[in-house]
């Protein structure tokens, strides 16, 4: 355990640790095609960092399609199956992510994975990430309200036994950043699919490459 004040690191998954947003690009485009349309760039950007249920409502609206709850259920099954197939083909790491995880582990600091992705898909991604790295894993279908609600980060901090203010969250999207900030975590943002702007209490970094414990502590101090 660190004696510097920072007690835990809470990691987003898609776009932060894993270069999986491009896999979602493929599966969402294929779903739009399956539904007879084409997903717009703006529609796809609005989905980044969101959970599946909300992403599907964005998709149907973007395609100009009316929908009933059953339509969302069937589309969700289709998307889940297709994304599972793509995940199983392998997921690339984001630059510096594996080394950053190893660095935090070497510092003896607990880590949590906090993702809006459902458990069934997260389990596939853990084959790449390594389940044993994380002391807690919070998935999008295991909370009442996913990101941008603070609930996932509040739950992760509680499971680790710390206050949110004792933790640094590492995110890539506006949705995830809003969740971490609302929870009261210090925030490091490494943008991936969507540009991010500076904001009070938010530290931006181009890449996780070369990230040090001192860098994380500096984020926490801010």
The fraction of residues assigned to DSSP E strands is 5-15%
* Spatial separation of the terminal alpha carbons: 20 Å
Query: How would you sum up the global shape?
Result: globular
- Discrete helix count: 9
**Order of strands side by side in the largest beta sheet?**
3-2-1-4-5-6
- Number of DSSP strand runs: 6
Stretches where pLDDT is under 50 for at least 5 consecutive residues are none
Main pleated sheet: 6 strands, parallel
Q: Nearest-angstrom radius of gyration?
A: 17 Å
Q: Please give the share of residues in helix.
A: 40-55%
| Helix and strand composition category | alpha/beta
Arithmetic mean pLDDT: 93
| Order of H and E elements | EHHHHHEHEHEHEEH
Describe what this molecule looks like in 3D.
- With 222 residues, the chain is α/β, with parallel strands linked by helices.
- The protein has helices spanning 21-34, 41-47, 52-62, 69-88, 97-106, 119-129, 151-160, 174-183, 213-221; strands at residues 8-11, 111-114, 136-138, 167-171, 186-189, 202-204.
- Strands 3-2-1-4-5-6 form a 6-stranded parallel β-sheet.
- α6 (119-129) links the parallel β2 and β3 (136-138).
- α2 runs antiparallel to α3 (52-62) and α4 packs parallel to α6.
- It is globular, with a radius of gyration of 17 Å.
- The mean pLDDT is 93.
């Amino acid at each position: 355990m660190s004696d510097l004040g920072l007690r835990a690191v809470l990691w987003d998954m898609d776009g932060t640790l894993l270069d999986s947003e491009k896999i979602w690009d493929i599966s969402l485009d294929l779903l739009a095609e399956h539904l007879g349309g084409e997903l717009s760039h703006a529609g796809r950007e609005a989905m980044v960092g969101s959970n599946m249920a909300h992403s599907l409502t964005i998709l149907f609206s973007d395609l100009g399609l009316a929908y009933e709850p059953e339509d969302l259920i069937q589309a969700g099954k289709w998307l889940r199956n297709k994304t599972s197939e793509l995940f199983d083909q392998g997921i690339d790491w984001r630059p510096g992510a594996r080394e950053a995880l190893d660095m935090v582990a070497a510092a003896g600091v607990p880590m949590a994975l906090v993702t809006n992705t459902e458990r069934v898909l997260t389990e596939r991604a853990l084959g790449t990430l390594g389940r044993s790295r994380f002391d807690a894993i919070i998935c999008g279908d295991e909370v009442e309200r996913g990101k941008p609600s603070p609930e996932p980060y509040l739950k992760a901090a509680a499971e680790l036994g710390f206050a949110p203010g004792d933790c640094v969250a590492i995110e890539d999207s506006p949705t995830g950043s809003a969740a971490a900030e609302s929870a009261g975590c210090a925030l490091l943002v490494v943008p991936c699919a969507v540009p991010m702007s500076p904001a009070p209490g938010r530290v931006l970094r181009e890449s996780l490459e070369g990230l040090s414990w001192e860098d994380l502590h500096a984020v926490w101090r801010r």
